[in-house]
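Following up on my earlier message about ribose-5-phosphate. Here are the inputs again, as you asked, copied directly from the submission form:
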Amino acid sequence: MDGRLLVFSGNANVELASEIAADLNVNLGRALVGSFKNGETRVKIEDNVRGCDVFVVQPTCPPVNHHLMELLLMIDALRRASAARVTAVIPYYGYAKQEKKTAGREPISAKLVANLICTAGADRILTIDLHAPAIEGFFDVPVDHLQAAPLLAGYMSSLHIPDPVIVSPDAGGVGRANRFRERIGAGLAILAKQRPEPDTAEMLEMVGEVEGRTAIIVDDMISTGGTLIEAAAMLRERGAKEVYAVATHGVFSPDAVASIGQSRLVETIVTNTIPQHDNHQQARISVISVAPLFAEAIMRIHKDLSLSVLFS
Ligand code: R5P
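Thanks, got it. Here's what our run produced:
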């Protein structure tokens, strides 16, 4: 790719985009991303992007529809301004949990959103820890799918916890938890979860041995916190000495941080794919930055280098 590398940001996570740009030693591209008085999203790219290799950093985190629209309009504006290539950098992919129909007459929203992003004109996608890896296939353009596991496992290893056990809080997360277990060398336990209604989690049973050990719950995202809190309660009931949790995406719906603060979780570790706020310390929530990982991936994409080294 010969064109200059440019990084732009919508309003979803300017802090992360600025950190990525600083790691790449470039300034954030200048763009007006706001609203018209009638409520419609307004975008104007202020820099010349003709022939450039452009990366737009925009997680589609809450307010999801608003951030998605900003992303779509930015891609469209960049295309029409003759950028040579536009990569949508989506550190958190909203609608990912609607990747299949769970009942009749439901949409497959994650597929529709992928269609919208491709139709807007994205040439590539760069993302991390999609809720379901199959979402990669929803895009008709190349997807580079990063993992936060090396960062999160590195942090947990630095705590030197003797004889830990990695816990998947539901059947769908077993592969993710097992890969994490392989990184830090630990046992594995699996919980069976059910959702009696949306946004409510109930733990049914557990497979594995946690008695007298430190349990580390591994999940892709925390929304209400219900999954973690219920999982931690069952693990303590079954004799776990203490419980930690790691998750890539801290969505934290209202009350989630307070509920985690009142739970028996020793520490909850998330990344900054979604902006994180200051009230986290009281809830024993730590935040690890994915900016260096994204910066390295962007540099490698720009230079047509392999991304494999980022997975070890
Ligand atoms: C579910 O399939 C996901 O992997 C997470 O366990 C879930 O999104 C967490 O949501 P909540 O914090 O609302 O229980």
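One observation from looking it over: The chain has two domains: 5-146+291-311, 149-288. Hope that helps, and feel free to reply on this thread.
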